[in-house]
Amino acid sequence: MPFLRFRIVYILALFCSLIGSALAQIEPLVQTLVITDLEPDDIVTLQLAAATGLRPSLLGIVVKHSGLKRAVAKWQAERLGWSNIPIVQGAGGYSKDYFQVSSTAPSRGYEGEGQMLSAGYRDSLLSRPPSSSELKLALIDALSTAKDDSVRILGLAPLEDLTDALTEQPKLVTKIREVIFSGGWVIGKSGEARATYNINMERVTRKNHSMTDLISLLGQKMRWINYEAVKTMWPSRSINPETAPAFWTAYQELIDRRNSLQQEVENSRAWDSHVLGHLQGLGLTSLHPLFSAITRFAGRQFSPSDPLTLFLMLHPNAGTFVETQVRLDTNDVDASSGIRVHLGVGNGKVRPIEVLLSFDRLKFLDFLQTSVKSLDQVYAQSGLNRQGAPHNDCHAVWDET
Ligand SMILES: [Ca+2]
Q1: CA torsion sign, 135 to 141 to 144 to 145?
Q2: What is the domain class of 30-184+196-238+304-325+353-398 according to CATH?
Q3: Ligand 1 centre distance from Cα of residue 148 (Å)
């Protein structure tokens, strides 16, 4: 009899373990939607995402020249093995459409995207008008067909289109597990909090600043990778051969093996020299950590915010967050420091969001280094050229289909 009891217990245990693994398999898959402005740090972030095996279900392309950037995104996606992913143009616009804030001046003034395209094609894309509705409709479509709590949104750029989608159909908020957003504020010398790039780069033509609406819709489903925390923990504000040597060694080896990637380096260098020109115009001296990092490592450095946002989406426990009430005040826009951010005072109705306080720097460095080592495999599978001119792999993906 004891033997029989043992067998029954054994069979029950086996049964439970099989049911357990079956349940794990049918747990709803989380899909990731990415909103990006395709600047050099975004491109590295997309590379790292592909290296971790992530395959977004939608890429939304926003900010100035979003039509041109959409074509470049198609090229990038093809190289990363992300064929057949919907790539949709969202809010964009022209320089005049944005707040005239000095921190956004380099972006408002940049015209250098898509240099690898033929001039005629590039010109036709540059004149393509912005389209909030295309991305808004794509987001509504993706959220409508998703299960509850099954969508995460990686926000590497302004989120106007998402606000429009959720304002139109607020019930879709239940589909969202989280929105993790690269951006926030910095505390200036006066002690005031002022918004950083992705918030300052919402179009001035909107009646109210939509990020406040998005906050009230999402509450704690929103995590901000706040720039104040990034600045404190990464004073150079640059991932370069000095601050992340193992990553850059591996990245350089990859570029040497697949010299088609030289195009990304050239684009990044062009962007850096453009930014440097603006910083000089603003009177920043070479003693400023940002200035010295860009000068020394032009083409071999990028901002940590966007890759950090990806890292903290994939490894949420590597950051500490604090519930914070945030309200943006577009009646108080300072030309040198941006939109005023009010934090937790006199705005009791505002739902708190999760704001980054600190992160595990060593784990982040390890993530960068480990992910970049898997990139060669990604490019091998997508058939990226090892040799030859970078233009060789542009082929037909430019078609606006
Ligand atoms: Ca970005």
Answers
A1: negative
A2: alpha beta
A3: 27
